[in-house]
Design the sequence.
């Protein structure tokens, strides 16, 4: 299907880092089943670095591809860098997404932020709360 | 394997239909409105096509208007009934919640003009009853429009009974028969159908051509001005090649209608039985009052677009009522109308087969869907929460 780029289809067909981390240090879940997409990110963090990351996604092809690409982009990176990952960077790395699918990349960004926040909260680490606004695209369909 | 299972979207043209068109693309290219012999040859073809279409529907040739397709026919039927009603001070229309958007959007526009619209409930089985229609009819009702068979879930409405109620009450009855024509018996006289829309590409004819039957005496409002073609009901030079293809396709389909329905229904039931074995899945729409080629399931815990992409990779062309496939934010209005919650409607799959489908293809599809659903559930956090008991299954 020419709906998606080859990169998107590659990450959809062969998603990287699918699964669960049982002893995750941070878990983030965003989205809404009513809208048709939920993303869950599991982080293993050691020495302020994302040593492992897994995802589970309920959603369309671009949601699965965005999750896969986002996990690849933060694996092995310092937590601060993972927090800086933008949805635009995810979409660009996928050679673009159709306009009505851009919210999938936003969900990926927000899922990672939610997982880091969970890690901070669990470990009583101080952080700037303004870095973690409420998930804006969780109810994107208004359902 | 390459399997086309999206025949409700469109069909492959039959050889008969293609061959019926060819002479009218090069040899007989006159304008049927022209006086000269080239024009008159085209006009003869047009007349013959109209007569053959009428014979398939059980009406007179003069009651057939050629249109650009089913959507235009629906628009014209409803707008015409509204104009007739308006003159008599009747501005109430009855329809159903799961009509095609060609009907629903036209009704919305009439609503803005001051018409009152009653949309009947289609219940969990996807069927309305003639009693519902009877109860909804008021002194100011000018039209009842109920589809012959639903395009997504394939349920066949009790058109004969609804027609009888409308005739008894003196209310015009239109049916969108886009999914039914060529697949189910139609006899507009005995079924008391006043207006009927059909589209050629749903029964192995060409795209961009359809027809509106309107009982003699019903004044059609022209949507397109500019000429006296189609007895002034639709301006524009007639698309003779497409009309010839449509007439040939309808004749062919109607000649084999019982044989095809029997064979395709058997394949459909084999597919339904096979997919029914997938846990936490459910057939959408009544299993008996159902188009021969329609299969539609919801599978809990997955999303339809990703299912379609995987099936496409496995060589299967299918369709879904998921919002992600429509470009809109809401899932199928048909699935919502039969009471499926949003999250379930997103996980829908429609497979629509034809006379060309084989048993091997059915068995391949059952296996492919089974694997795809299992694979997607394996990466779905929604499915995990259901399996872990954190959330309750909606589909048992």
Sequence:
């Amino acid at each position: 299907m020419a709906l998606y780029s080859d990169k998107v289809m590659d990450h959809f067909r062969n998603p990287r880092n699918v699964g669960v981390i049982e002893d995750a240090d941070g878990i983030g879940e965003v989205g809404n089943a009513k809208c048709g997409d939920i993303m869950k990110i599991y982080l293993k963090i050691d020495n302020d670095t994302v040593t492992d990351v897994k995802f589970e996604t309920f959603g369309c092809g671009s949601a699965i591809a965005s999750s896969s690409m986002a996990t690849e982009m933060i694996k092995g990176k310092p937590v601060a860098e993972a927090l800086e990952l933008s949805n635009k960077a995810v979409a660009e790395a996928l050679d673009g997404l159709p306009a009505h699918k851009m919210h999938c990349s936003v969900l990926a960004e927000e899922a990672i932020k939610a997982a880091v926040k969970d890690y901070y909260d669990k470990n009583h680490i101080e952080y700037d709360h303004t870095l973690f606004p409420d998930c804006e695209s969780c109810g994107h369909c208004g359902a | 394997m390459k399997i086309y299972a999206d025949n409700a979207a469109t069909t492959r043209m039959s050889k008969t239909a293609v061959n019926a068109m060819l002479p009218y693309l090069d040899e007989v290219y006159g304008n049927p409105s022209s006086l000269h012999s080239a024009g008159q040859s085209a006009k003869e073809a047009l007349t013959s096509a109209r007569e053959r279409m009428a014979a398939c529907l059980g009406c007179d040739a003069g009651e057939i208007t050629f249109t650009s397709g089913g959507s235009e026919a629906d628009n014209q039927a409803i707008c015409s009934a509204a104009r007739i009603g308006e003159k008599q001070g009747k501005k109430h229309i009855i329809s159903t919640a799961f009509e095609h958007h060609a009907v629903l959007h036209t009704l919305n526009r009439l609503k803005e003009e001051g018409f009152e619209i009653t949309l009947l409930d289609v219940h969990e089985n996807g069927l309305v009853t003639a009693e519902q229609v009877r109860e909804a009819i008021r002194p100011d009702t000018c039209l009842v429009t109920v589809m012959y068979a639903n395009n997504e879930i394939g349920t066949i409405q009790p058109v004969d009974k609804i027609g009888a109620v409308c005739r008894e009450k003196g209310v015009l009855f239109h049916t969108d028969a886009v999914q039914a024509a060529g697949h189910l018996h139609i006899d507009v006289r005995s079924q008391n159908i006043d207006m009927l829309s059909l589209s050629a590409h749903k029964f192995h004819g060409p795209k961009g051509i359809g027809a509106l039957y309107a009982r003699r005496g019903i004044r059609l409002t022209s949507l397109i001005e500019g000429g006296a073609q189609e007895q002034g009901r639709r301006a524009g030079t007639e698309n003779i090649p497409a009309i010839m293809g449509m007439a040939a396709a309808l004749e062919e389909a109607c000649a084999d209608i019982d044989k095809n329905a029997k064979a395709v229904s058997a394949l459909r039931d084999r597919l339904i039985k096979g997919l029914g074995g997938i846990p936490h899945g459910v057939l959408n729409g009544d299993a008996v009052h159902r188009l021969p080629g329609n299969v539609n399931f919801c599978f809990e815990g997955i999303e339809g677009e990703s299912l379609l992409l995987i099936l496409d990779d496995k060589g299967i062309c299918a369709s879904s009522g998921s919002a992600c496939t429509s470009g809109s934010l809401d899932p199928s209005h048909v699935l919502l109308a039969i009471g499926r919650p949003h999250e379930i409607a997103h996980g829908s799959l429609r497979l629509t087969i034809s006379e060309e489908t084989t048993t091997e293809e059915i068995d391949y599809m059952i296996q492919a869907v089974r694997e795809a659903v299992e694979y997607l559930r394996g990466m779905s956090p929604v499915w995990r929460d259901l399996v872990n008991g954190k959330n309750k299954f909606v589909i048992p």
